[in-house]
Design brief:
Layout (H helix, E strand, L loop, with lengths): L2 H12 L19 H12 L4 H11 L3 E3 L2 E3 L24 H4 L2
Antiparallel strand pairs: 1-2
The structure holds iron/sulfur cluster (SF4).
The site of iron/sulfur cluster has 16 residues, from helix 2, helix 3 and strand 1.
């Protein structure tokens, strides 16, 4: 699945579901301590869009905390073209479009 298709699927799900990280700055922080990562893992494990979040993060190779795991920075330029369709959760502030605003 392409990163764009995965992103579209995730955003479609976010129209009906609220991600566990919604409104939690810890998920969009530049770094997390071990205990903070552990707390994020617990939140992600209960998240209704875990699989879609994981699919997007894997396809996009984006940096940050996604679907229960800290991802290394491998951001691709193509992601800058993706745009969120909802502001339901912490997933959204990590998107490249928001970094340009
Ligand atoms: S990072 Fe992904 S799996 Fe974890 S709470 Fe947020 S949307 Fe859900």
């Amino acid at each position: 699945m392409s990163a764009e298709a995965a992103w579209d699927a995730l955003n479609e799900a976010l129209e009906d579901e609220t991600p566990g990280c919604s409104g939690l700055p810890l998920f969009v922080a530049d770094s997390r301590a071990d205990e903070q990562r552990a707390a994020c893992e617990v939140i992600c494990a209960r998240c209704p869009v875990f699989d879609l979040c994981d699919a997007y993060a894997t396809a996009a190779a984006d940096a940050g905390f996604w679907a229960g795991a800290e991802r290394s920075p491998k951001r691709r330029k193509a992601q800058a073209q993706l745009s969120p369709t909802t502001d339901a959760g912490a997933v959204i502030p990590r998107q490249p479009n928001n970094e340009q605003e």
